[in-house]
TrEMBL record:
GO biological process: peptide transport
InterPro entries (UniProt xref): SBP_5, SBP_5_dom
SUPFAM superfamilies given in the database record: Periplasmic binding protein-like II
Pfam family, one: SBP_bac_5
Family: Belongs to the bacterial solute-binding protein 5 family.
PANTHER family found in the cross-reference section: OLIGOPEPTIDE-BINDING PROTEIN APPA, PERIPLASMIC BINDING COMPONENT OF ABC TRANSPORTER
Gene3D superfamilies registered for this protein in UniProt: Dipeptide-binding Protein, Domain 1, Dipeptide-binding Protein, Domain 3, Periplasmic binding protein-like II
GO molecular function: peptide transmembrane transporter activity
Domain named Solute-binding protein family: residues: 75-253
Keywords: Signal, Transport
Protein name, entry field: Extracellular solute-binding protein, family 5 Middle
Length: 394
């Protein structure tokens, strides 16, 4: 890395984030997210209460979990240094990393972890189902946390790595949630400087970040750009450094043209993200298009989220699909400790989905990011998560 950069030359990373919602009306009532997989600006900075990609992109810079999914897909200890598991697979003991501090300089202790995991489980957030097997969380000293489960659970360490299990200060430092998350305090490499809900966000480097070296950027600016063509043009012109998604073909228009050939008419109109979310969570549609991402390194999150109507957190991905045999396979895979046997179970699950067609996978899009040639150290893990701690500008 250049010495002039290390000496403290001011560096600001500007990211353009496209955000647009589409819906179809007419004979069919449909609610569609952005067909290109783009992000609206963040509207909720509570990691225990959101699932929207625009929120998570920002949350990943402010908060951190006990484990992280690395770029190669492996699970790596982060706020924890490691863990042990009891012989029956039902008790996990996490050793916390010493000398970790929040952005206000206060030390991370077991009280923060106990509070965070309990809050994540009880939040009724969209990913709280990941913590459904937790029966208790207790401190065993300042730097040790014991988590007891109702049953052995193979994906548990992966579940702990989800952004929805990020660690916040104990009792939110005595503040109401709305007040705390308007100016959040986390252990991550950046802090919130300014924020327009649903729009622009500016992050500043956390001067008390515990995991040196880094961050190397003084600031990060997220800008929402609604027009896809303008987004690419701004990258090419150097007005932004990174765009989150290089726009692929518009699936909504492709489907519209295909259905027209069989006499089904769909008209497309713009709809704000909040209205889209409200429509599909109320099942107020006949057809919708969405993009799902597995946030952890284990296949269970997506399998249960999309196929377990009662315990998966989304009524089988808002389809009400309910097949007892498929649900039984999902739950068997969750408790099976043998990796080879789990792989065979997921093969059976995939075959059931192919046979029953509860939803139609239109594509498996690559996570394509657009970068200026001067952006260095920008890495994406298999779930599409980006952490900017090691990014710098040449």
């Amino acid at each position: 890395m250049p010495e002039s950069f290390m000496a403290g030359r001011r560096r600001i990373l500007q990211l353009g984030i496209a955000g647009i919602g589409l819906a179809a009306t007419g004979p069919l009532l449909a609610a569609c997210s952005a067909s290109d997989g783009s992000l609206p600006g963040p509207a909720n900075l509570d990691p225990h209460g959101t699932i929207l990609a625009g929120d998570v992109y920002t949350l990943n810079q402010i908060f951190e979990p006990l484990y992280l999914t690395a770029v190669d897909g492996s699970l790596q200890p982060h706020l924890a240094t490691g863990h042990t598991v009891s012989p029956d697979g039902k008790t996990y003991t996490f050793a916390l990393r010493p000398k970790v501090t929040f952005s206000d300089g206060s030390p991370l202790t077991s009280a923060d972890v106990v509070y965070s995991l309990k809050r994540a489980q009880s939040s009724k957030g969209p990913l709280s189902f990941l913590d459904g097997v937790i029966s208790s969380v207790t401190a065993a000293g300042d730097l040790s946390v014991v988590v007891r489960l109702t049953q052995a659970w193979s994906p548990f360490t992966s579940d702990i790595s989800a952004f929805s299990n990020s660690i916040v200060p104990d009792d939110l430092q005595g503040k109401p949630a709305a007040e705390f998350f308007a100016k959040p305090v986390g252990t991550g490499p950046f802090t919130l400087e300014s924020w327009v809900k649903g729009g622009t966000v500016t992050l500043a480097a956390n001067p008390k970040y515990w995991n040196a070296p880094g961050p190397y950027l003084d600031k990060v600016e997220f800008t929402v750009v609604q027009d896809e063509n303008q987004l690419v043009q701004q990258l090419q012109a150097g007005q932004v450094d990174v765009i989150d998604t290089v726009p692929p073909a518009n699936f909504t228009q492709i489907i519209q043209a295909s259905l027209k050939q069989i006499g089904v008419t769909i008209s497309i109109r713009s709809i704000e993200d909040a209205a889209y979310q409200a429509a599909f969570q109320k099942f107020d549609f006949d057809l919708f298009i969405d993009i799902a991402i597995n946030d952890i390194s284990d296949p269970d999150e997506m399998a249960s989220f999309e196929l377990d109507e009662t315990d998966g957190g989304s009524n089988s991905y808002w389809t009400h699909y309910s097949d007892p045999a498929t649900t039984a396979l999902v739950r068997q895979a969750e408790t099976e400790p043998d990796s080879a046997k789990r792989q065979r179970l997921y093969g059976q699950i995939q075959q059931k989905v192919a046979d029953d067609v509860p939803f139609v996978p239109l594509s498996y899009p690559a996570a394509i990011k657009g970068l200026g040639s001067h952006v260095q150290g920008f890495k994406v893990n298999p779930a599409g998560a980006v952490r900017l701690k090691e990014v710098w500008l040449a």
